[in-house]
Design goal:
With about 350 residues, the chain is mainly alpha-helical. It has helices spanning about 10-15, 35-55, 60-70, 70-75, 80-85, 90-110, 115-135, 165-175, 180-205, 210-225, 230-255, 275-295.
């Protein structure tokens, strides 16, 4: 006998994922091709060049100061309100929630956890790499600059590279990375590129980042997207581990609420009873009845004291008395009857 338990929301999600194969056949997993390796190496070289240009206080630092003194937020003040809202598309919290909701629906429809796991891996790489670069180089932003014309490096800041820009590249670019068709991948790549470009320029407009911060943020986000195929085996193992853990939890939970019963194996073939079997059963029953009769002890019967009359001499008695009327001339059977006197007439 098995006791039914109430399914949780997580159980219903996994039940939905178990209905069909975990990954549709037409969705391919990106691989680290030679073309992608070339792009990765080129972006990494661009990343190093930007960092080196800032460290040596090259022409790029002078350009940063010129843009800062231009003060775009004052030159085009009429779009300031729009840019304040648009830059939210680069903030990690709101964008992660929006993209995770979309990828969660994709996981539900495609019966796989890969979209959500790919998003988690990309955000983890983003926090580790960009966060380490920010803290390692410690550059101050335009609003906190101390010396005109300096690179403002290693002064305790956390502005280089731009986190808004890198986050926009990763969170919106992951949609193109996980696209199921080449056409969708092209369209989503264009949309994510325009969105991340607008977010980076918005931070420059607001004066929260140098222009070189935005350039390095674009490179940092693109490096993460290009390196994701190297982490596909890890994503696949994580997905398999999650499903295996789910199965073990189900088995353990089922073992606590299940009453052990005898296993049902093969069906038992019933054969009709023969006459010999019936006679044998009857003989066994008769023998058992005889044994029980011999072993039964009956209590002794006690009779009332005094002389007993024969049955013929007893007067039948009913609860209301005798039914026979009294006869004074009645004699006992077996005795001689007196002669009746003759009357004349």
């Amino acid at each position: 006998m098995r006791t039914e338990r109430k399914l949780t929301r997580l159980d219903r999600v996994f039940a939905r994922l178990d209905r069909e194969p975990e990954r549709p056949a037409h969705i391919d997993v990106p691989r680290m091709t030679r073309h992608r390796i070339v792009l990765f190496a080129s972006t990494l070289a661009f990343y190093g060049a930007i960092v080196w240009a800032i460290v040596i206080t090259s022409w790029l630092v002078r350009l940063d100061w010129q843009v800062m003194f231009f003060r775009p937020y004052q030159q085009w003040a009429e779009i300031h309100a729009f840019v304040d809202y648009y830059v939210v598309l680069g903030q990690r919290g709101p964008t992660a929630v929006m993209v995770a909701a979309w990828l969660g629906w994709r996981s539900w429809r495609q019966h796989t956890l890969r979209p959500l796991l790919a998003l988690g891996v990309s955000l983890l790489l983003l926090n580790v790499t960009v966060g380490a670069a920010k803290l390692g180089m410690g550059r101050l932003g335009p609003h906190y600059a101390t010396t005109v014309g300096s690179n403002e490096m290693w002064l305790g800041g956390d502005i280089f590279p731009s986190g808004h820009t890198a986050n926009a590249v990763v969170t919106w670019g992951i949609l193109a990375y996980l696209a199921s068709t080449p056409r969708a991948r092209r369209w989503l790549s264009a949309v994510s590129a325009v969105t991340s470009l607008g977010v980076g320029l918005s931070t420059v407009y607001l004066g929260t980042h140098w222009l070189s911060d935005v350039l390095l943020g674009w490179a940092a986000g693109l490096l993460i997207l290009l390196a994701l195929p190297w982490f596909e085996p890890l994503i696949a193992r994580s997905e398999a581990w999650i499903f295996a853990l789910r199965d073990r939890l189900r088995e353990r939970r089922a073992g606590t609420v299940t009453v052990p019963t005898a296993p049902v194996e093969a069906a038992v073939l019933l054969t009709p009873r023969t006459v010999a079997a019936d006679s044998e059963a009857a003989a066994c029953e008769a023998a058992s009845a005889a044994r029980s009769a011999r072993t039964t002890v009956h209590p002794p019967a006690y009779l009332a004291p005094g002389p007993h009359t024969t049955r013929t001499e007893r007067t039948p008695v009913t609860p209301v008395g005798s039914r026979r009327p009294p006869h004074s001339d009645r004699i006992t059977r077996g005795t001689a009857q007196p002669a009746r006197p003759l009357t004349g007439g």
